[in-house]
Amino acid sequence: MSKETGLSALILAAGNGKRMKSAKPKVLCEVLFKPMICWVRDWCERAGISEVCVVLGPDGDEVKTHFPEGTSFALQQERRGTGHAALQAKAFLRAHAGGDVLVLGGDAPFVDDETIRGALGMHRESGCAVTVITAQVDDPAGYGRIVRSKRSVTAIVEEVDADDTTRSIHEINSGSYWFKTDFLLEALSHLGCDNAQGEYYLTDTVRAAVRAGKGVCAYCSPNADIAQGANDRRGLLRLGNIARMRVLERLMDAGVQILSTDGVLISPDAEIGRDTQIYPNVIIRGRSRVGEGCVLTSGTFITDSVIGDGALINASQITSSTVGDGARIGPFSQLRPDSRIGKGVKIGDFVEVKNSTVGEKTSIAHLTYIGDSDVGERVNFGCGTVTSNYDGKRKYRTVIGNDAFIGCNTNLIAPVTIGDGAYTAAGSTITDDVPDDALAIARERQTVKPGGAVKYRKN
Question: What is residue 198's predicted lDDT score, i.e. its pLDDT?
């Protein structure tokens, strides 16, 4: 989405994690592997809003790490309500005077970009000072109700203050708003805290706009989940379930085959190609990319990785790595960060690869560790091979050329190079470079002692 001028956003994120029983700020609690405030951040970006100010609490330093350079921050030292939080950003609002500002809660992850743009369109077309973003819900209990006249909003009535007629209204306040920035600045300066909680409420600015005849509109989003939030871990689970099914339905609509939804958790930032099959109990985190026609079997766990077309990932873990087209991984293997697996590679059971490049059509059948290595194409690893990359102080690389054959139970003591077409004999411990097409045998010759086993048993 292209950036629009005159737009800014204020994200209220000063809440603590007390009711979540968390040491972190509430907005960093995750919905489908993603902190709630990162959902809000990304919706703003997709809606074309680049000028953002985040209002933080005293424990908000970690929240800053989730925002790009150039983001503004304001501190709410005392948590005294949403209006008080917005007031802490008055310097940011003054810097963006003459425009329109979107106010969002950092713990409302489902206020999507289509809703933001739709509400902005109404806000600008109507010329209202405030546009409240609302939703129609089946059960409005606990939410502020939207009371309308024919053309505008006349009040937002909290449930505790509502009569029976008002409680029957199903249009609710989502807690998100578009304001004319100049009006918001003026209204915030006149807020009072004459209420049971002794707090300053953002909804009082709506009342001020109505009294001043400046016009208040309500944009009813087609997304009924925009008001969903969480105040405890049970609420967080509810949000996660909503997000999970949204992601799975979006992927199925795009041609991904979900064999069963049981235990399938896929990040909202993941991309998966058509005709890929997802078995039960598959987890995909972060900004992972899975190609077309892949098969991901049960027990697969992928984080921030790229999987090429036609790959099979069989009950294996892949973290911050790349897997080429047609590769076969697993079962029960692990690709640790910075592994780059070429096209057509076969990695069998109980194999671990770390910070290594593996060339096309190489086979690492089973029970092998490849760490800090550069492996060529069409290499064959026998069972039990280990690259010994660490001497207790430093790590070293192993280099293996094309078409090499590494015998079973070979120990490659890095730094060492195995040339193109070279072979190592089974059971060898290789400490020196092996030239192209050479055979390296590094093991003690077998000795047989007749009757030695009998003596051993007696002793």
Answer: 74
Which sign, positive or negative, has the C-alpha torsion 108, 110, 115, 116? Answer: positive
Q: What is the pLDDT of residue 191?
A: 86
pLDDT for residue 3: 59
Contact of 237 with 255, CB cutoff 8 Å? no
Instruction: Give the contacts of 319 (CB within 8 A, at least 6 positions apart).
Output: 302, 303, 304, 305, 334, 335, 336, 337
CA atoms within 13 A on the CB side of 83: 24
pLDDT at 4: 63
Instruction: Please write the tens of the pLDDT for every residue from 430-443.
Output: 999 999 999 999 99
CATH number for 254-343 (one of 1.10.8.60, 3.30.565.10, 2.60.120.200, 2.160.10.10): it is 2.160.10.10
Residue 366 falls in the annotated catalytic set: yes
Contact status, residue 277 vs residue 255, Cβ threshold 8 Å: no
Q: Do domains 254-343 and 356-459 have the same CATH topology?
A: yes
Q: Confirm or reject CATH 3.40.190.170 for domain 7-220, answering yes or no.
A: no
The closest of 415, 397, 410, 414 to 439, measured between CA atoms, is 410
Pick the closest to residue 217 from 113, 341, 100 (CA basis).
100
What is the structure's pLDDT at 434? 97
As a whole number of angstroms, the distance between CA 312 and CA 357 comes to: 19
Q: Can you list the residues of the chain whose pLDDT is less than 50?
A: 1
Sheet holding 357-358, edge to edge: 271-272, 289-290, 306-307, 322-323, 340-341, 357-358, 373-375, 398-400, 416-418
Residue 451 identity: G
Helix (H, G, I), strand (E, B) or coil at 406: strand
- Tens of pLDDT along 115-158? 999 999 999 999 999 999 999 999 999 899 999 987 789 989 88
Prediction pTM value: 0.91
Query: Catalytic pick from 66, 84, 170, 366?
Result: 366
The pLDDT score that the predictor gives to residue 445 is: 85
Residue-range domain boundaries for the chain: 7-220, 254-343, 356-459
Question: Domain 356-459: which CATH class?
Answer: mainly beta
